[in-house]
Specification:
There is one protein chain. The protein is mainly β. The protein is built from one helix and 19 strands. A hairpin with a 5-residue loop joins β1 and β2. The protein is rod-shaped.
Length: 253
């Protein structure tokens, strides 16, 4: 009968080659080779290869798009397990139920994909945890889940909007060049990269008398020989892709 003399670790020795010798009283002997295979048991928990992961994806990505890492390669959450076979068969899952509605993780590979349309203006980033579980009996999970942060990259999907549809001001005569009559203002819900606004006067209703600061939206006098009692013209704001318009009405008195 062969028995163990100390605790055996499969991860250190998966098998043993023994030579068993039998002798009698006159020292006659016989030998036999014995191969002992060590059966693995699920005594190691999975461990993530790194404690945190960072990914990014554009808000314009289609549903089921793969989240990328900083190298523009698919973001893959990875863990290792020192056991073998089913004891090392890993399954990944997102911990937070709310995030499960936005992202999915491939249970076998750890790759993360989108489950719905994203909106940078609603959520610019998501922070959540991923857990990994092996297939042993009993199952073991990582002692510490991996932290995942996904940044949603903004695209220019919001048009600029004036704060008012109609701007009304009065101009008292006599007046002078560069006198500020009024300022129009617009806002854009995109990030700063996509919300660089440019203002302009549309048409000929006021271009010969007034000018507008392209960046600030301030409307000033350019000519002092004003003959009409009022002026009405359109102003436009553009972010490079989208534009909006408003009406400006100036009473002269």
């Amino acid at each position: 009968m062969i028995s163990t003399t100390k605790v055996i670790d499969y991860e250190t020795h998966s098998f043993f080659n023994l030579t068993v010798r039998a002798t009698n009283m006159v020292h006659a002997k016989a030998e036999s080779l014995v191969l002992i295979h060590i059966i693995d048991e699920n005594d190691n928990m999975p461990i993530f290869t790194q404690p945190s992961y960072i990914g990014n994806i554009t808000e314009g990505a289609q549903i089921n798009s793969v989240v990328l890492d900083h190298n523009s390669t698919p973001l893959v959450i990875k863990a290792n397990d020192a056991d073998t076979d089913l004891n090392a068969l890993l399954t990944y899952s997102i911990v937070e139920p709310a995030v499960q509605e936005v992202f999915s993780i491939d249970a076998n590979t750890g790759a993360i994909r989108t489950r719905r349309q994203l909106d940078h203006e609603t959520n610019a980033r998501y922070d959540f945890q991923v857990q990994v579980t092996d297939g042993g009996k009993p199952q073991q999970s990582a002692e510490v889940p991996a932290k995942v942060t996904i940044f949603i990259t903004d695209v220019n999907d919001c048009p600029p909007v004036f704060t008012q549809a109609l701007y009304v001001a009065s101009l008292t005569l006599p007046t002078y060049e560069d006198v500020v009559v009024l300022s129009v203002k617009a806002h854009d819900n995109d990030s700063a990269l996509h919300s660089q606004l440019t203002y302009s006067i549309v048409g000929s209703g006021g271009q010969d008398i007034f000018t507008i600061d392209k960046k600030l939206g301030a409307i000033t006098v350019t000519r002092t020989d004003i003959e009409q009692d009022s002026y009405e013209f359109n102003v436009r704001v553009s972010d490079g892709s989208y534009q909006s318009a408003a009406i400006v009405r100036i009473h002269v008195g």
